[in-house]
Amino acid sequence: MKNNTTHVTERPHLFLILIVFVFLGCSKNDNNSETLTTNTTAPNILFIIADDLGKDAISGFSEGSIKPSTPNIDAIRTNGLSFTNFWAYPTCSPTRASILTGKYGYRTGVKWAGDVLSTTELSLQDYIKKQTNSKYATALVGKWHLSGSSDTFNPEVFGIDYYAGFLRGEVENYYSWTMSENGSSKVVTDYATTKFTDLAIDWIGTQSKPWFMWLAYNAPHTPFHVPPSNMHKQGNLPEYKDGMDAAPYYMAAIEAMDFQIGQLLATMSEAQKANTIIIFIGDNGTPNEVAQSPYSSKTAKGTVYQGGINVPMFISGKGVSRNGTENNLVSSTDLFATIAQIAGSTTTQINDSTSFLSLLSQSSATRSYQYAEKNNGTIDTWTISNGSYKLIQYTTGVNELYYLVSDPYELNNLIKGTLTSAQTSAKTALEAELSIIRK
């Protein structure tokens, strides 16, 4: 899909669950970088990450035929912007590291699930503190997964004020799991999705200054399980066992997460909601066991195909004056500069991160290319797209080229045939940009 086509309606006010009054603009400072100007009340930032959630598993996208019931996530989408060309990484750790640092995985060494993020990296939360004179309180609740198999590097090491959640890749059991809270650990028997929400509610309720809550649910990541019955609409599910159809359990976990997002929003006053921007994303594509057409086990989570990296992102709330779908190119690294700018930073570009804050109030392309990568321990893979063409390269020397405009699900590798002059030019341009990115 072309990156310069946008379908939105402009509206000055949003009413419903998220009431928005927008007074955002941009100006130029002496360094010719865009400067955020806002009203005197700094917005709260609620950043929600769903674990293993592709476009085929949520309403608002054509991919997938079976969708869970998610009225609260739907409200975030319908009251703001839905990004159709948002790229993350194929697995969770690299996506989280790219947001936390604003850097591509090959720069931080976090290119696959379980890779360790160096404590020398400057985190988004620490950067916001330095840029705003510690104006914001920061918290990370839920999944961390940037310490590898070690529990040494808690989020507090990265300048995050408060952390509670689990440090590994997934909870052992949604009803019995090990929780770390500011350096100490204990076994918790509360349903994990509910516990994360309660922790977020409790922390937000004690804040006296603007806050940035990074809420990272384990849901709908494995283990497949039956959530509390009042939180889902999948019927009377038996306990999950290997070999069973995992789809209803996956959908139930999404619905339970949505239920808990609703619980969180319900605890906020109308004034607090009006002063909060909400960003909701999936960290990578849908798992192979439950991926839906047009994706498959070969093009979903863990791959650099669209089903693995082109994931949902919805933004609404304070400062979002546009409504509809946004097709401009955005990468997960861009959340670093964007969230920092929302918090008051005057820098629109840092590391591999380009702020897309302007897209929340006007349609204007912020980047010309998207980049993603993976290294599962054996083969390095890189991919780059200009929104129309997408190039995939492997260290084995294999190349793939797709024309996403007419082949959005990468069924026809153009390199297997004879390239036209236009296709050759596009391939050459993408190769050149890839060399620049990875230099």
Automatic annotation (TrEMBL):
Signal peptide coordinates: none
Keyword Calcium in annotation: yes
Family, per entry: Belongs to the sulfatase family.
Source organism phylogeny: Bacteria, Pseudomonadati, Bacteroidota, Flavobacteriia, Flavobacteriales
Tagged with keyword Acyltransferase: no
Origin superkingdom: Bacteria
Protein name: Sulfatase
GO molecular function: arylsulfatase activity; metal ion binding
Species of the source: Flavobacterium faecale
